[in-house]
Design a protein that fits this description.
The complex is a heterodimer of chains A (113) and B (111). Chain A has 113 residues and is an all-beta fold. Chain A is built from no helices and 11 strands. In chain A, the strands form 2 sheets. In chain A, strands 2, 4, 5, 6, 9, 10 and 11 form a 7-stranded mixed sheet that branches. Chain A has a 4-stranded antiparallel sheet with strand order 1-3-8-7, with no helix packed on it. In chain B, the strands form 2 sheets. In chain B, strands 2, 4, 5, 9, 10 and 11 form a 6-stranded mixed sheet that branches. A 5-stranded antiparallel sheet of chain B has the order 1-3-8-7-6, with no helix packed on it. Classes of the chains: A mainly beta (113), B mainly beta (111). Chains A and B meet through strand 4, strand 5 and strand 10 of A and strand 5 and strand 10 of B.
Chain lengths: 113, 111
């Protein structure tokens, strides 16, 4: 199994631009999580899905952030418009109902200038 | 107050030393507990689950005290390869599937 796959690995964008982060969970996993990691705040849960349905989006910072999961093998996290304070590493993780362990992708390092 | 609190460190220890990390959590309904390891500029990976009776995996021992809402990780005979950030992780109460992470404790094992 290839594990959780995220793209792009690195993204540099200008303030005000739209940014789309992508994630492919491990096949057969029915939970998908989006986390953000910064030095100041550590790893924060943004949103998670179960069977493609958003369950808890209370961690999404504001309306500029949106996430979708159109099918079991793909999810996106979109920031529009982006701001410098959005600069962070964004991780996607997946897990299955049978096992609480969450497997993380390698992350997308986002820099907004 | 953060849901999961850890001493950020860093802990600088010589090879062969024993080192202990502590963690407290605020949600008494939390059901599952873990230690994850994160290497520099890498993703977090599960190190071990933590059970009420305490559990051991080689040089690593994890303990849970539900009454005090306290979790610990003991590493014996530290190796250079143990250098990393150790994240205390809690899964919330019934129906809450997401993991809540502490900010991590950085360990640097020195030759």
């Amino acid at each position: 199994d290839a594990g959780v796959i995220q793209s792009p690995r690195h993204e540099v964008t200008e303030m005000g631009q739209e940014v789309t982060l992508r994630c492919k969970p491990i096949s057969g996993h029915d939970y998908l999580f989006w986390y953000r990691q910064t030095m100041m705040r550590g790893l924060e849960l943004l949103i998670y899905f179960n069977n493609n349905v958003p369950i808890d989006d209370s961690g999404m910072p504001e309306d500029r952030f949106s996430a979708k999961m159109p099918n079991a093998s793909f999810s996106t996290l979109k920031i529009q418009p982006s701001e410098p304070r959005d600069s962070a590493v964004y991780f996607c993780a997946s897990s299955s109902t049978r096992n609480t362990e969450a497997f993380f992708g390698q992350g997308t390092r986002l820099t907004v200038v | 107050r953060k849901e999961v609190e850890q001493d950020p460190g860093p802990f600088n220890v010589p090879e062969g030393a024993t080192v202990a990390f502590n963690c407290t959590y605020s949600n008494s309904a939390s059901q599952s507990f873990f230690w994850y390891r994160q290497d520099c500029r890498k993703e977090p990976k599960l190190l071990m689950s933590v059970y009420s009776s305490g559990n051991e995996d080689g040089r690593f021992t994890a303990q849970l005290n539900r009454a005090s809402q306290y979790i610990s990780l003991l590493i014996r005979d530290s190796k250079l390869s143990d250098s990393a950030t150790y994240l205390c992780v809690v899964k919330g109460g019934t129906g809450r599937r997401a993991l809540t992470f502490g900010s991590g404790t950085r360990l640097q094992v020195q030759p």
